[in-house]
Design a protein that fits this description.
CATH topology of the largest domain: Arc Repressor Mutant, subunit A
Strand content: 5-15%
Strand order of the largest sheet: 1-3-2
Order of helices and strands: HHEHHEEHH
Low-confidence stretches: none
Largest sheet: 3 strands, antiparallel
CATH architecture of the largest domain: Orthogonal Bundle
Helix content: 55-70%
Distance between the termini: 33 Å
CATH class of the largest domain: Mainly Alpha
CATH superfamily of the largest domain: Winged helix-like DNA-binding domain superfamily/Winged helix DNA-binding domain
Number of strands: 3
């Protein structure tokens, strides 16, 4: 038996059998579903999740925000600069540790919360509330398991 459970010499699995493709294509579908709301807010999906993370915990370091969003600083910093130029957040050096940059929402960034209340796509998923929670936990566990080897390398 090969590692994928197929017998040697058997036909490769079709694309539809790949879990990675199911997750990837679901992510694309989420992007399409969020598009009208994001266009209304004038944000990309990545900008939106950064704002949501700051709604959850305002005034955090760029490093901690990057960890939560699974983004490297070379991706995160330009995005934060753009959000700052849009007037949605401010970045400033931490007075207690000049090496750290803290990010906090402006009143305009906080007010987006009310404008984006319809951004929840729970109903669009077709999942019951219990199924939704189970799916979210399963995908989170999958992500965390996939990241374990890279965390050990650091």
């Amino acid at each position: 038996m090969k590692p994928d459970g197929k017998k040697p010499g058997s036909k490769p699995a079709p694309l539809s059998d790949f879990l990675c493709f199911a997750v990837y294509s679901a992510n694309l579908a989420f992007g399409k579903a969020y598009k009208p709301v994001l266009e209304q807010l004038g944000l990309t999906y990545t900008q939106f999740i950064a704002i949501v993370a700051l709604w959850d915990e305002d005034n955090q370091t760029v490093g901690s925000l990057g960890e939560k969003l699974f983004l490297e600083s070379n991706t995160l910093t330009p995005m934060l600069k753009k959000l700052e130029a849009m007037g949605l957040l401010q970045r400033q050096r931490d007075p207690e540790d000049e090496r750290q940059v803290r990010v906090s929402l402006t009143p305009a960034g906080r007010s987006l919360r009310e404008q984006s209340l319809e951004a929840s796509l729970n109903d669009s998923t077709g999942l019951s509330p219990d199924e939704f929670v189970q799916m979210q936990k399963a995908v989170t566990r999958l992500r965390d398991n996939l990241l374990k080897p890279s965390r050990r390398e650091k």
